Amino acid sequence: MLYVLIALLSVVSVYEGIRNALRMSQDFQYDAACALIHGYDPYDLSIGFSQDRVPDIAGLNEFYAYFDAQGTPQKMEANQFPSLLYILTPYALLPYIPARVLWLVTNLICTALIIGLLKSTFMSRVDDRLYPVLMMVMLAGTPWRNQIGVGQHTIFAVACFLLAVYVAFPEEETAGAKKVIRIIASGILLSLSYLKYTVTAPLAVYFIYKRRWKEFALSLVPHIILTGMASGVLHESFADMLTKPLKVASALTGEGSIDIGVLTGGASWTVVLTGIIMLFLLAAALMLPEGNDELFISLAILLSLIMTYHRGYDFFIMIAVFGYFATGRMKAAEIIYLITTVAFFFVNRIFNDSVISLTVSGALYYACTISFAVIAAERMYRREQR
Prior knowledge:
Helix content is 71%, strand content 0%. The chain is mainly alpha-helical.
């Protein structure tokens, strides 16, 4: 009976997500990508945004006119680096309505990829009967539904990351030309995953943990090239192409869900805490013994959602942490993590993300994250003691 209920909830959630995406998808950053590929600086347009300053570009005019007619006027918030906006070029070349539909189709395909690839990678030890239930819980939850409804980038980014992992670590080792092709393909996929770098940059440290330096280094090359290209097109310095997006993004520091930016009230020193967390993750990548793949990726997921600005729609990736519990470790904490997941997937929506519900669910989340960090630190210490 519970299985049927979860299945029905997931079907309804998918339907609602698709319906919302067809109507809105306001976070797609179509406008910023459209401005950039037509030679306009989306960062200057974002700061002190006014529709009076919007360039006379058909796609941009259609975008803002559509949302004005909906009674939900939009403003440009180009908080993505130019190399990431260039990833959206195939969509920005289309008029907004078909671009929005194509982005929805992309996200649905990427959702299917996530479901298939998690079972082949970090959730391979999850029982075959339990795995479909967990995937339906993910689809039924508010985070995934809102993610696809507002047209966010995390689904695409996570799918590309999982594809990069799947390609980089085949069941049978390859050599020669096939190995080179795998390295290049994995590097390119990892590069694409940075479209939501606040999630996937910490996850990409997994390649450092696995000592896959070539794939990791290769993933940075397209962004260096594309950033240089944007610098030339906009006639601005390379440094500006890195600092301007961060300046736009800084305005959102204190507006997330439970991340440290919210806890500090968006204070300027929040970046120091983020740096400390990232250094700990790098230390874990370099010092954790082999065979801790599920632990490392779970730690990276949990830390990624609090170290920088995130809203609740990014928390659908919490489901992957159940892959660690399937290894038979920390079983006592599994119930607490299940309660935490239910809170973010369902309970917070019931209470409209009230201060009380976010405080309780956030406290549980931080408790789980600290537990994983302690386990990782302990294993790092034991390795050093050998």
